[in-house]
Predict the structure.
Amino acid sequence: MFVIDPHVHMVSRTTADYEHMAMAGVVAVSEPAFWAGFDRTPAAFADYYRQLSEFEPQRAAQFGVAHYCWMCLNPKEAEDLGKAREVMSLIPEYLKRPNVLGVGEIGLHKNTANEMEVFRRHVQLAIDVGGARHRLILIHTPHLEDKWRGTRLIIDMLKEFGSAIDPSRVLIDHCEEHTIRMVKEAGFWAGMTVYPTTKATPERAVDMIEQYGADRVCINAAADWGISDPLWVHRTMLEARRRGHSRSTLIKIFHNNPAQFFGQHPGFTHKPLEVTDQPQMPIELR
């Protein structure tokens, strides 16, 4: 089974993680820019963007894994508007690189006015550098108690841009049971993160797929320096298989959906796979 992980922070993982993911069938990963655990100076971001777009692809390539990335200023560092302006001035040059898929993971952390201002600036940047169609956008929604309001604010802000924003080119991530409906009904792609301490479990992720369907859905692990594991994606696949979901459904969710979304960028070379289902029985975990 081939897998594309749409959201994983490999700068915080060991090279052995790449090997384990490759052995488990991962053929490509997408790494958004994120918080380093502390607030950085603007000058540090140039080095970080080079690490994402130059060094990480080399580590991944050792195991036949394609590495793609995203550029932004993470919402946790968005309170200083002067810093945001300086950091964002670096981004357009990196967006020209063929392995940089777009702007992300932008979004909200505490739903503050400054976070919202920086979010709008990022969206405008994606529009300005995109030409006829804006660059792909990957969005972080807040954790836990701020999630519903933050997701609502994000959708409303995207609507402010009118026809300049194409929902099929926007993935709103970290959806949960109380937010996935509004994301899908607005026409956006919905990401579900399997990170049991703060987000979904494999069981909850499969429940959401069964309730809201497998179209425009991507499953990721968002593995980072916290208590996380890139193979939570595979545990979710195992849960779906245990419930009897077909091989074609599994390929759609864990490979073809991300290939379809990322494939809107010309630098993303992995194409959706065609699969013919064969009869299979649900597996029993003992």
User: Anything to note?
Assistant: The longest strand covers residues 100-107.
